[in-house]
Amino acid sequence: MINPEAPFADLRAPDGAFARVYLDGAQVAQWIPADSTDDRLFVSPNAQYGAGLVIRGGIPVCFPQFGTFGPFAQHGFARHCRWTITDDTRTSDGLVVLSLTERDVPPATAEALETMWPHRFSADLHVAVGGDTLSVTLVVTNTGDSAFAFTAALHPYFAVRDAFAVSVHGLDGLTFRDALQGGAELTAPEAPLAITGPLDRIYFSAPDALELREPHRTLRIEKDGFTDAVVWNPGTEGTASREDFQPGDERHMVCVEAAVIRPGVTLAPGAAWAGTQRMVAS
Questions:
Q1: Catalytic residue among 75, 80, 119, 155, which?
Q2: For 115-147, how does the pLDDT look when each residue is reduced to its tens digit (9 = 90+)?
């Protein structure tokens, strides 16, 4: 159930394209392209909303850590923080910018940062919607006096009619890490990736354009700044073991993520990095 105390910003472009962004986690939770009634993002009916919670679906922000590749719990702390709207031009061109700094981190997390990741930073998330396109850009700036390193990802849950009729195109021949095979590194075949059950793979040095194809439509997924791609579906056991999924959700979602994992990013004092994921519906 949606928590009425969970603040959000609605973006509506002049052509009618729509997106909703929750301030908790700076998480995009809806995207409806212009001339459409279909929400192209999946959110579970069991999703939780509110301070400190992560919505099961939409586009979570993973920073300063992807997965368990670092000292924090899964996917880092940014998705558990309430971000601040710093620029809002929703009425003119469907754009909102949300920001997070170390000053915005909840006290318990701030204590952990002092020992695990004692760095000064700012993070900005730019969300823009219009026409058939949703664009999400994460900008990280080192505002301190020493270098730091991080990994990151944008983690979209795409809504699909039947996940097990979906294929992902553009991953042919890449090296990937398969979490379901103990982290083994393998080579992808020269063929589209069919979703046939649970998947949890990092594709290294992935191309900047992939396609998520269903029998009746295609979603083009582009990235800039991010080096890697992640494909994830929890499968039946994965949804059954998580209370913020409901049984059967695995058939209605596929995650195709833009990520920077290996290598991560190292920022010198005063330096900034930006990564964009752009989704184009057809």
A1: 155
A2: 899 999 999 999 999 999 999 999 999 999 999
Q: Active site includes 257? A: yes
Residue 141 CA to residue 179 CA, distance in Å, equals 30
- The model's pTM is 0.96
Q: How far apart are CA 46 and CA 35, in angstroms?
A: 28
How far apart are the C-alpha atoms of 115 and 81, rounded to whole Å? 18
Report CA-CA distances (Å) from 173 to 161, 195, 212, 227, 278.
27, 17, 17, 16, 23
Is residue 155 among the annotated active site residues? yes
- Domains of the chain (ranges plus CATH)? 8-281 (2.70.98.10)
Q: How high does pLDDT run on average in the chain? A: 94
What are the tens digits of pLDDT across the range 98-117? 999 998 888 878 888 888 99
C-alpha 211/C-alpha 47 separation (Å) is: 27
Close Cβ partners of 144 (under 8 Å, ≥ 6 residues apart): 119, 120, 121, 269
pLDDT score of 112: 81
Report residue 281: phi and psi, to 5°. -90, 150
